[in-house]
Structures are given as C-alpha cells and as structure tokens.
Design goal:
Elements: H1 14-34, E1 38-42, H2 44-50, E2 64-66, E3 69-74, H3 77-82, H4 87-110
Parallel strand pairs: 1-3
Antiparallel strand pairs: 2-3
Length: about 110
Amino acid sequence: LIDVLQTDSSIEDAVVVKEESSCTEFLDQQIQLLRPSVIVAMGSAAAKRLMRHHTMLDCPRTVHDYCGFDLVVTDHPLDLLKDSSKKVNAWKDLCFASDLMKGHQEDASVS
C-alpha cells in the first residue's frame, strides 16, 4: 500500500514539479521492485496521478495498464466513510481486483 503525493495542481513552480517527478520516480521503482499482479488505486487523486492520460477512470471494474501492470480504480476510503452507499461498488471493485489477482496466480502456476 503506497500513498500518492497530492499537490495543488494550480501551483506550477519548479519545486512542486521536481517533487512530483521524484515521487513518481520512486513509485515506479517500488512497483518494478515489487512486481504486483494488480495495483488498486484508491480514489480519483491516486488514479489521476497514475493515469494522467487516461479518461476512462470512472468505468467500474475496468482493467487499466500502468507501466505493464494491471490497475483497478476504486473509491478512496474517506469517500466511503462520507457516503456509505459507495461501499457496495467499492466492494465489487475489490472483489474484481482479487479475482484478477487469482487469475494471474493461476497463469503463473500453469507456466
């Protein structure tokens, strides 16, 4: 579980850009080191940070690609605390990610 640095997108100074770049580089290194079968982005800030170019982030239970790794987007835990009606879909997202991970494990055992 890795937190994604949130910055004020209205600030475009050199320090913020360098900080974002360093954090993204560190995150990418951690992902390459851990080689997760599935990445779950919790919340729109994390999803947008990982998928800057992607516009389909609101599609439920969709597999996105992040640097060759499967990425599933769900709601941030704070959003679930604020609006309990989102919990049903968040649970479905996590079950989807779990099934995806199990599929990767089965593929690895066959190889």
